[in-house]
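Researcher: Go.
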Amino acid sequence: MYCPCTDGKIPISNITRWDGSQWLPLGSGVNGKVERIIVDSITNELYVFGDFTNAGGIPVKGQAKWSEKKQAWSTILPSPEAYISLYTPVELAVSNGNIYYCKPTTDKLYNSDSTFFDKQGLYVFDGAQWKLLDKLFDQDQNYYIIPDEIRIYGTILYISGRVGNDSQPFHYNLYLYDLVSKKIIDSIPYSTIVAQRDIIIYDNVSVSDGGIFIDEGNGFFWYNNGIRKKIIQNETNDQYPYSLVSSSSEYSSLWNYVSIFSPETSQRYITIYDIKGDSTYKQTVHLDTRFIQQYVNTTYISGHTMFVGGAFYFNENGADVRNIASYDLRQKKWYDMAGGVCGPVHAFASIYH
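Model: Structure:
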């Protein structure tokens, strides 16, 4: 997450762990920027992707795995040929050591024995080789899905993307794929803002005990028990087609790059939705708007605590916040996490829920 620094902090190589009171290294770390972290909550392993070539002394190609049990780094796939070409794979999820990949293109997906798959569909890597889990749709009729991102929660894989064929306009759906029965069990249609072109909104889906939350571009919606409800009004356009959505059983949050700026106060904010109280409020993030390098890059909610990472600095009520902070959603108070870290934060995840 941050680079070695000389102000009394423990030198960390681009990725670190917070144990509740202090920052700790993950072995010798990685030698470049971490862009995305995907957690396997069953095996307590982190799948780390980014712009790096070494993890714990092991040569890698921008993707590596950290084991909490072994306290060691390893490669994710067994050979360079099995490498996933995207180093920030929004189309990938992991559970119990299995990697689920909703392949969006006809690029070849290699196994170590040089066999490959070149069709779009849902694939699983079982620790030894890739297997086609489901075509999802009838590709012979050119009817297919272009996934924007996937999430996994329990035994359900949530696949968000554009669906259609070469002769019909694409529409947008969130598909619920049951990994036990190995079939789609439900789908949720959702809208997207259309300006000069269709907008693909990344990081716009969150799934938790609280339900399904989606930034649809023309509003922030909550799906639960068959009910669809708009909880926040927002607009997303093609200049900033990007949102950060997080949720737990108690709260959900939206950081949207169009709705974050308030001309009256020159402040930026995250909109919080209290699920049980069925109410919303805005929490300011004190970015200095004079400096373009100030930004929020990632959010995560665990229980009633929201974690925010990016490139920012502020001091509020004794909390000396630097690049990463926790926010108590009940007390509405910032905590500085031991003064934060001394470089931009691009990704984080929690192993324990």
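Model: Residues 77-189 form one domain.
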